[in-house]
Design a protein that fits this description.
The chain has 16 helices and twelve strands.
């Protein structure tokens, strides 16, 4: 997509935001005129409020600019977008109200009712407008995708290629890979165009617009050389971060008598944060067990009718501080499923599954009894997914800082799972996502993961088997 097209899309977004803000203000005026809340009030004609409308719209657009809502940032999730719009509109409303009261001191001033209605309607209508703008952007990106070059040919590079293929709305067409050796070969049907030393020529000859450096283990000197080469050809550069960059996403800078130091923030769940998370676990898991009890009874009946054996399957998993606990699931396999093989990962079309078990695993309904684990305090709604002790022993030998994911309770769902890293997928990548969650925990983050989990349940998960 050309720079001209990007600028036109930004102008479209600004125009739609302004139109939605104008519509919200007008509807707020109509509501205040017809609803006697908070007190009965006779409003003058709408033309008396044009000046306040202009202040409102300009405040909104300015605040959106400072919130970087007009800066290209890829495809935001709608949950993130709603949170950013809610925050920005709230600040813009306060600024506009203050400016209006300073500029006008008459019966035409902003009334409390109009402030409330305008704020709520602006959040709603701007969000609707952004959904429309996003649809237009996705359509344009599909028609005019960015020409993308991936530096690296390892697991990370393959994962990025897979993401671009699974999400055409991102607007990327991978033209090739760059490796550290030479020409020839391909990765998943995409050609290797040459070595890193020739990246400037490759960018120029293939009209590359964006470069993703998928070398998380590269040293700083190598990264700087690659970035310099890409920028010399005016290509946008993105870097897949290494483990340290992920956990150090927010640092404070201090000094020791003039010597600069970086301090990693303390985000451990303790005190009021721990109480808040535990309270949400109790409320949500308790409510879920009550409302889902008819469904759980039906599932239990179907399991008993299909095959002999218990309804529930209790499996030892490793949780908080590396301590084992019995994790509950609906039984989805034969009773003697691991008699011959021992502990192994489930596989596609696993012959050990029962017919009802295959459906339960595909829809994740076999996980419903884990709400009991959450209610008992053995698990949390959100956190790193727990593994079996035998796999933990294997992973901690090969994955750096793997055991640090056990600093928090295991979760019913997690940041790795909502990003497609579920089942027999890369444990290294899952660990990175788990550590990112631990280092960036917030109640809003938990709510976002829960909402995305619910959405994914309806979409289906190709890694659930």
């Amino acid at each position: 997509m050309s720079q001209r097209a990007k600028k036109l899309l930004t102008v479209l977004t600004v125009a739609v935001d302004a139109l939605m803000a104008i519509a919200a203000f007008y509807f707020a005026y109509l509501l205040r005129a017809s609803i006697p809340f908070p007190t009965p009030l006779r409003l003058g004609p709408f033309r008396n409020y044009i000046a306040q409308l202009i202040i409102q719209v300009l405040s909104l657009l300015t605040t959106f600019f400072f919130f970087r809502l007009y800066h290209p940032k890829g495809e935001r999730s709608r949950i993130d977008l709603f949170y950013n719009i809610l925050s920005a509109v709230s600040i813009a409303t306060l600024v506009a109200t203050a400016l209006s009261y300073l500029a006008y001191r008459s019966d035409r001033d902003f009334t409390r009712g109009m402030v409330i209605y305008s704020w709520a309607l602006t959040v709603l209508l701007v969000m609707v407008g952004r959904v429309f703008s996003s649809w237009v952007k996705r359509h344009v990106r599909r028609k005019h995708p960015e020409r993308l070059l991936i530096v690296g040919t390892g697991d990370v590079a393959r994962m990025i290629l897979q993401k671009t293929r699974q999400s055409p709305q991102l607007g990327y067409r991978v033209v090739g890979f760059v490796n550290g050796e030479g020409n020839g070969g391909e990765v998943a049907g995409v050609p290797i165009l040459g070595p890193r030393s020739e990246i400037e020529r490759i960018i120029r000859e293939h009209d590359v617009q964006e470069v993703i450096i998928a070398l998380p283990e590269a040293n700083h000197a190598e990264l700087l050389d690659l970035i310099s080469a890409c920028e010399s050809e005016r290509a946008t550069v993105r870097i897949f971060p290494d483990l340290f960059q992920i956990i150090a996403s927010e640092l404070s800078i201090s000094d020791l008598d003039g010597l600069p130091l970086l301090t990693v923030r303390d985000v451990a769940l303790r005190g009021w944060k721990l109480v808040l998370k535990r309270a949400m676990d109790i409320v949500v898991s308790g409510a879920a067990l009550i409302f889902l009890s008819p469904l759980m009874l039906l599932i239990a009946l179907l399991i008993k009718l299909e095959s002999k054996g218990p309804v529930f399957y209790s499996q030892i998993r490793v949780g908080l501080d590396g301590k084992p606990f019995p994790m509950l699931k609906f039984r989805s396999m034969r009773v003697d499923a691991e008699k011959e093989t021992g502990p192994v990962w489930a596989t596609p079309n696993d012959p050990r599954r029962t017919r009802i078990g295959a459906f339960l695993r595909r829809t994740s309904l076999d996980e419903l009894p884990q709400f009991i684990n959450v209610l008992l305090g053995e698990m949390s709604l959100v956190g790193p997914r727990p593994e079996r002790p035998i796999f933990v022993e294997q992973f901690k030998q090969v994955v750096p800082r793997y055991m640090e994911r056990h600093k928090e309770k295991a979760g019913l769902t997690g940041w790795a799972q909502v990003n497609g890293l579920r089942g027999n997928t890369s444990i290294v990548e899952r660990t990175k996502y788990d550590l990112y969650y631990i280092e960036n925990w917030s109640l809003l983050f938990d709510l976002k993961i829960i909402l995305r989990t619910i959405i994914n349940l309806f979409k289906g998960d190709r890694n659930a088997y």
